[in-house]
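Predict structure. Chain length: 108.
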Amino acid sequence: MVQSLTSAKSKFLSLVKMQFKVLLLSFFCILLVACVGENENTNNDTKSEPDKWWERTDKYKFCYGKITAAHKANGLHKRNRLKSIEVKKALCKIAATSKTGEGSYWLK
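Prediction complete.
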């Protein structure tokens, strides 16, 4: 009888140890998945471009069209296309985001 109790106790402890190991392994798997997901979100945030909301505004689009017409008229559009685009983006960002009227000339 004593031997069967000892054997039952040994089996019970073995089962508890195994369940503990499974529980511990599950916990680490959950942590690993959470960490990987967190790192993926962080990596995506650092790689993505900042939101250029002003480029979607009507003011920006109107300004861009007006400056493009001016650059075509004076030849900058053909002579130095990259500089023309750079200037248009800078001026129209100011015009679209200004609270005090900077760049408003191009919105007339």
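Summary: The CA atoms of residues 9 and 15 lie 10 Å apart.
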